[in-house]
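hey so i finally got around to running both of the ones u sent me last week. sorry it took forever, my laptop kept dying halfway thru and i had to restart like 3 times lol. anyway pasting them below in the order u listed, first the sequence line then the structure token line for each. didnt double check formatting much so if smth looks off just lmk and ill redo it

first one:
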Amino acid sequence: MVRFDIRPANGGGFLWRLLSGNNRTMATGGCQCATRAECTAQMRRVAEVALVKRPRLVHEDDGTWSWSLDDGGEAIARSAAPYSRRIDCLRAIDRFVDLADDFQSGLAEAPAARPPRRGA
């Protein structure tokens, strides 16, 4: 089971992330949102696009690999971290795609934005 999480961003606004059943971050939003409602709309768009479009593999300038789910030329979701090996990034894409059907239920569980944890 996956779930979306909305957090306040440093300097204002909000960021979202997609968490796996074991609370590992699988994806993050493509950009910072001004409001929680904007984050929720972006998460809904990711849920729709992920069912019909596969994320693209990105080879970064530093030699690492990442992925991006694009919609209309705009990144709406990205890998949560860079991967040192291409195969690991491809596996992460497969996990993301395999869980796309669960995104709608994850949206229903999206909690209200909460303040950052102490020491974070």
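and the second one:
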Amino acid sequence: MGEARRRSSQGLPPRQTKKAAPKDDSPRIMAWLPLTQNQAREFVSLTSKGAWVGIGAMALLWITVRFIGPAAGWWQLSDG
């Protein structure tokens, strides 16, 4: 027995359909390129955040190698 027939025989209402994700109606960057301006903005935002995370990680690594490691006695710097 199909789902629709079972629901009607049990007196249940028809099953609600799921709402589709909102469609991006912003204009395309170029007519032949399947990327919209909203997608381009999201990409720039994401890569900017990723760059700042990378800069922070690099600074933390440098501080660890230059100051924390030698102060804790983990290693000695070759230039000092």
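quick thing i noticed on the 2nd:
Helices lie at 3-9, 37-72.
anyway thats it, ttyl
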